[in-house]
Amino acid sequence: MTKYHHDFAAVADEILAYEVGHKIAPYMAEALGQGFEIPASAPNITEATKVHLVNQRHIFDCRNLGRSPASLAATLTKRTGGKGRVARRMRDVLDLGCPHELAVDLAEIGNTDREFLLLAMQGRLASASIAIPTTGIGELSAEAVLDVLELLARYHLLANLIRAGEDGFRRVFEPTGHDGLDYNNGKITSEASGARYLTTEASRALSALDLYKTAQHRNLTEDELGQLEAHPEVGVARIDEARIFNALGDEYANIYIDLLANRARLWTRHIKRHAGQFARQRDAYRRPLHRLHGPDALTILWLAVTQAVAWASCARDPVAPLRRALEEARQSRPILQPTSHEQDVGDIRSLFFLLRNYFVADPRSPAASKFNKDAGKSFDEFTDILWELEAGKPAGAEPFSHAASTSASVLLAQMKDDPDRPEHVRIRGEMAGSILIQLSV
What is the pTM assigned to this prediction? Predict the structure, then answer.
C-alpha cells in the first residue's frame, strides 16, 4: 500500500508542478530550425525517418493507396474531414474544389508514374516536385503536373489544420494526460477542479497511511480493515509488497516499506497543502487547467489557421506562396515562410470558426452554447445562423473569442522580441504545422 502512495505523491507533484498544460503534440520543432527558413530540399530520407514522420502524422502512410479515381477521392475526402457540410465548407475556404476532380488527374498521373503519386499523396512535396520530369507525366506537361501537385498540397494544408484542431481538443480536455485530473464529464477542467481532485486523493492516501502507522502498534479493527480494503489500489499494493519481501527478505523489507511510508506521508501532505492553496487562488474556478502553463490552445489554433491561409493566399500576388514554394523546392532552394494579409481575415475567421466548433469542440463557443439551449435545432443549423451573423461583420479580430485574439497578438509580439526562446521556437513550429516539413522531404 505504501509503495502506491509514494508513487501517487510523486506523480501528483510532477503533474501539478511541471506537466499541466505541457502535453503537446510532437511537431518536430527542432527540425524546423531557428530562423524558419526551410532548408534546401532533402528528399533522400531514411526509411526510419519516414516511419517516424508517418507516426507523427507529418506525412501519410500510403502503403494501401488505391489506384482508381473513386479510391483516391475517398482518401482525399477522409483526410480533409469527410463528406459532411463542415468539411465541404473548409475545402471551399481553401479553394480545393471537388475531390473527385482532383482524383481523376491523380489517377491518370499514377497510371504512368506510380512512384510520383505515392510521394505526392504521402505529403513529401519536395520529393514530388523534384520527381516531375521536364517532359511531364503521361499526357500532362510538367507545368500541368505542378498545378495538380499545388492543389494536392492545399489538401495537405487542410489535413494539417484538422490535425491541429484535434490536438487542440486534446489540449483543452486532456491537458495533463492523467485521467483523474482531466476527466470532467465533457467539461473543461478548471484549475480549482484539478486542485480539488489532488486534495481529495491526498486525503485518501493519508487515511491509508494512518492505518499503516496504526497497524505497527496494534491489530486493526474490522472497521479499519474495511476502510483499508475499500481502497481500489490495495490489490496492486499487495503485489508490490510481495515483490519487495521476495527481493529483500523479511527484516530488510519491513525497514524499506517503513521508509517508503514515511516518505509518502511527507510527499502527500505537501501535495495536499500545495493543492489546497492552489484551489483557493483568485478565479481558480474560472481559469482552465490547460492554461496554467503556456498560451491557450485556441490561441495556437488561431495562429495555425492564420499561417495556413497565408500559404494558400493570392492576396498579394496571383501566384500563391505555396506554388512558389513548390517551384523553389523543385530547384532545391530555401523557402521563406509567408505572412498573412489583411484580405485573408475572412477566410481565417471562417476556418477558425469551423475548427473550433467541430474539432476542438470548445464548449465555450457561442455555437455550442446555443445548441445546448435548443435541442430542436441541429448543430449544422446553428452553424448556419452564426455563420450568417459572422459574415455580416467587418473584418477584424478572431471571432467568438474569449480574449484569445488579444493573447495571440501579445504572443506574436513576445515571439518577435525573443525569437530564440525554446517555447517560442516550439510555438512557431505549431503555427506552421506540417507544411514546412512536407516542403523539405
Answer: 0.74
